[in-house]
Structure formats: C-alpha cells, structure tokens
Specification:
Layout (H helix, E strand, L loop, with lengths): L2 H25 L3 H13 L4 E7 L5 E7 L36 H8 L7 H6 L4 E3 L6 H4 L4 H4 L7 E3 L12 H14 L2 H17 L5
Parallel strand pairs: 3-4
Antiparallel strand pairs: 1-2
C-alpha cells in the first residue's frame, strides 16, 4: 500500500465515515417514522433487529437493522456448520426463507432500507461505510489464515464484494473481493463503491 492510501485509511476514512453518515441520517430522517409506523402496523415491536457480528481484529459487536423477519424466526436462522480447513469457497450463506420474512420486510430488504440503522454502527466506530461486510461468529470461527485477513479493516455497510454480486456470490469470490479491497483501499475506490452501491440498489441486484 502506497503512502497516500495509507494516510486515507489511517486518518481520512474515519472523517469520511462520520461526515457522510451524518448527512445520510439527516437526509433519510423523514423515512424513520414512516418505516416505524409500517412495522408497527404490520408486525408490532421490536422495530430493530440486533445480531452479533465480528468486526475489525475479530472483535464482536451488535449490528442494527430494521426487523424484516417474523418474531418466531428471528433467533432460528443461525447457521450451524463445521469445517476443518476454512470456510469452503463454494459456500453460499442462505438468508431467511421468504416465508420467514414479513411483507414489509421483503420491501425493506429489496431496497436495502433495512440496513439504514447501521449508519449508527458507523458513527459508533464499529463499522465503516465501505469495507468487508461483517460476518456472524458462527462463520468466522472457521476462517483459515487467508480468510482472517478480511478482519484487518473495519467491516462496511457496503463493499467491493457487494457491488460485484451483493448476496449472489459464493464465499470464495467474496473473500477475493474483500482482500482486493484491503490491499487497494483508497478514497477513489471508496467513492467508486459508494456510487456503484446505489446503482446495485436501484437495480435490486442480489439484495440480502
């Protein structure tokens, strides 16, 4: 990594995260009561879904999302796997079945609106706007040495892997994209990912 990207990663990235997150939170402010009302009317409380994810340096934190699943399915979707040599490259994480997702939840996931509360994770310093997506500990505990490198940076609300497939890619492809980002992290690349994320959301490509 050259000097300029290093300076950005060390100092500029956090400033970018805080400034852009605050702007986005203010711009999206009118959506909060509308989303909350729809969630209350359709499936009641809680409005938010929290889950343990693994962040930078293998540190756990609680990620925030608008709840999209039915109450009795929230804690029943944890993956149960056991691997000897790292997570297989052909592994694809299966999210909740459509029958487990509420009607309003389907829309929130398709539009990625359910991810908005993660802006607070960014402000708290647990996440970055751009970076490898945070994974659940049930997956990261089986990482091999190469896969653990994706934990060198803060996890992101979106990343290079997401704009190159979002939820459609197998684990091996995601790891390669994440490691490419870690090796080439820069303001220019972050802006490219930032723009491509909105394109992917608009097209509804591979939403989580």
């Amino acid at each position: 990594m050259t000097i300029e990207p290093f300076i950005y990663e060390r100092y500029g990235k956090r400033c970018f995260d805080v400034c852009v997150s605050l702007i986005l939170l203010l711009l999206l402010l009118p959506l909060y009561p509308i989303i909350s009302l729809f969630l209350l009317l359709s499936s009641g409380t809680p409005l938010l879904f929290t889950q343990t994810r693994i962040g930078q340096s293998n540190q756990p934190f609680q990620i925030f999302k608008f709840r999209t699943m039915k109450h009795n399915k929230i804690n029943s979707n944890k993956p149960k796997h056991e691997w000897n040599y790292g997570v297989p490259d052909n592994f694809i994480f299966k999210s909740a079945h459509n029958l487990e997702i509420t009607k309003i939840g389907m829309f929130l996931r398709k539009s990625s609106i359910d991810e908005i509360p993660q802006l607070f994770n960014v402000l708290r310093g647990e996440m970055s706007l751009i970076g490898p997506r945070p994974e659940v500990p049930e997956i990261t505990q089986w990482y091999n040495e190469k896969q653990r490198k994706r934990l060198l940076l803060k996890p992101g609300l979106t990343g290079w892997a997401q704009v190159n497939g979002r939820a459609d890619s197998c684990h091996g492809h995601k790891i390669e994209h994440d490691l490419f980002y870690i090796e080439n992290c820069s303001f220019k690349l972050d802006m490219k990912i930032f723009i491509l994320t909105f394109v992917a959301i608009y097209k509804g490509k591979g939403a989580y």
